[in-house]
Amino acid sequence: MFTWEGAVLAAAVVAFPLVYRSARSALDGVDPNIENAARTMGASEIRIFLRITLPLAFRGILSGTMLAFARAMGEFGATLMVAGNIPGKTQTLSLAVYTAVQAGNDALANRLVLLVSAVCVIILVVAGKLLKPKI
Predict the structure, then answer these.
(1) Which of 27, 99, 125, 127 is the most exposed place for a label (fewest CB within 10 A)?
(2) Whether the predicted model's global pTM rises above the 0.85 cut
(3) CB 72 within 8 A of CB 7
(4) How many degrees, rounded to 5, is the angle at CA 27 between CA 21 and CA 28?
(5) 4-131 domain in CATH 1.10.3720.10?
């Protein structure tokens, strides 16, 4: 407790359901006939998963990962309870914004919010390029 590992664990526990639900929906959406066709051609289960199932479900899995990342970036409550708010050790960006606002340091809080926003925009742009439909 009260370590950076605790902060990672708290963020992961809170964000994991988003990845799970999205990945499950994406994997359920893969046409089993395609997988069965690969089986009849002699492909192993691992090859079918890596060459057919995973590429077809990639967009859904990536979408869930993006949602989880955004959720983890804004995580406050679980991180505060498990890892605390120790500057330089367990303080996350959302906790740093909270601390800056509580201390009346609006300039620092604004810079931190801009930093979080910039990181999220960069992630969205990169993910948008990865999710662009291939024609």
Answers:
(1) 125
(2) no
(3) no
(4) 85
(5) yes
* Tokens 């046409």 -> residue: 31
What's the rounded Cα separation, in Å, for the pair 30 and 58?
10
Residue 20 has pLDDT above 90, yes or no: yes
Q: Which residues contact 94 (CB under 8 A, 6 or more apart)?
A: 73, 74, 75, 76, 79, 116
What is the pLDDT averaged over residues 27-44?
96
The pair of structure tokens assigned to 26 is: 């994406």
**DSSP classification of residue 76:** -
Looking up tokens 């526990």 gives 13
**37-80 tens-digit pLDDT:** 999 999 999 999 999 999 999 999 998 998 898 888 888 888 88
**Domain positions in the chain:** 4-131
**C-alpha closest to that of 108 among 98, 99, 100, 116:** 100
Average model confidence (pLDDT) for the chain? 90
Q: Which residue has the tokens 């060459």?
A: 51
